[in-house]
Amino acid sequence: MRSLREEKHQKKRLREEKRQNAIKEPSVIIKANPMVSRIINIMNRFDAVAIICTTPESLKLSIYARKILESNFKIFGQVSDFALDAAFIRYEADGYFVENEECRYILEKNGIDKDKIFITGMPVLENKNIHNKDDIRKKYGFNDNLPIVVANGGVYETDTIREELIALMYSREKYNMLIITGNDKVRRKYMNTAEFSAGVVFSETFEEDMMTIADILITVPDSKVIFSAFRYGVAVIASPHITVKERDIRKYLVKRALVLPVKNPAEMIAAIDELLVETDRKKEFAMRGIKYSTLSINDSINKKSALQLNKSNNNTQLK
Predict the structure, then answer these.
(1) Range 8-16 average pLDDT
(2) 121-178 pLDDT, tens per residue?
(3) Which fold has domain 133-297?
(4) Which of helix, strand or coil describes residue 107?
(5) Are 205 and 140 within 8 A, CB to CB?
(6) CA triplet 96, 100, 102: central angle to 5 degrees?
């Protein structure tokens, strides 16, 4: 006899399957979204047997493409985040690669067969370049040996942490700041404030080599940037979330004492002062991050599932 929870999940799954099956005619889909046509061309051109989708949108469109082709190539969802985006849940997917146990639990709770879910850790590209810290400091305009605080505002171009950054620019005495924003207007606003001074520099994009010289990372809940900081032993201060996904990422990391959460400018200033003064505290966060990232990268399940997938000669990845 099924439990009430199982019945609830079954009903939810049936509703979702019904919704996904009620798609437009193939010709209309292709006309409405050229990406579907592109996926079809890729699959036909390379005669691929599997496709790994790294975004919810590419997963959805790949499922549409397979229906149109009436093909049997496999479709996998790659969740490269600490938390699961609900839009990733597609019952027609053949499997999922996820970063952690909580992502797997949520997929299972929403009706995805547990045998289709593999914990593979965070996918990363190994950077084999030898980093010379002095050269990298000069690359970003730092000619002294003061600690460096890197600030990442993500897609919001630091809009969500602007008050905090201006407060830091005003109060800082013994550290430099590297602010990441690709928006010229935002950069000019910072430079026109009374708080702006030497030792505050800007970069249009996040680069991994920043983590080799960073002492502290301030960031919105961004899995890619935070994981990079973990790998290089950089202490992370997490700003408040905006989206549900960011909330879940922040919650996951705070629960494991991997990041230091703050809510306002005063807390951020205090957090930076704490980490720079109490070096043992900073080392604790650094070591936890290194340990977490090492386990994630070297996950034994990762190696096993990757081996199974690589039995196929042709695999295509869509971003």
Answers:
(1) 69
(2) 998 876 656 568 889 999 999 988 899 999 998 888 788 888 888 888 888 878 999 9
(3) Rossmann fold (3.40.50)
(4) helix
(5) no
(6) 95
Lowest mean pLDDT among 8-12, 198-202, 251-255, 310-314: 310-314
Full-model pTM: 0.82
Concatenate the DSSP letters of all residues of 262-311 into one string: --SHHHHHHHHHHHHH-HHHHHHHHHHHHHHHHHHHT-HHHHHHHHHHTT
| 255: pLDDT strictly greater than 60 | yes
CB atoms inside a 10 Å sphere around CB 51: 25
Smallest CA-to-CA distance from 218 within 184, 257, 260 is with 260
**Residue from 213, 217, 216 nearest 144 by CA:** 213
Does 24-121+299-318 match 133-297 in CATH topology?
yes
Tokens 């691929």 correspond to what residue? 48
Specify the length of the chain in residues. Answer: 319
H or E element: which one contains 38?
Answer: helix 34-46
Q: Which residues of 165-200 are buried (b: 16+ CB within 10 A; e: fewer)?
A: bbbbbeebeebbbbbbbeeeebbeebeeeeeeeebb
Highest mean pLDDT, choosing among 5-19, 193-207, 222-236: 222-236
One CATH from 3.40.50.2000, 3.40.50.880, 1.10.10.60, 3.30.70.560 for 24-121+299-318: 3.40.50.2000
Instruction: Report the candidate in 97, 156, 91 with the shortest Cα–Cα distance to residue 122.
Output: 97
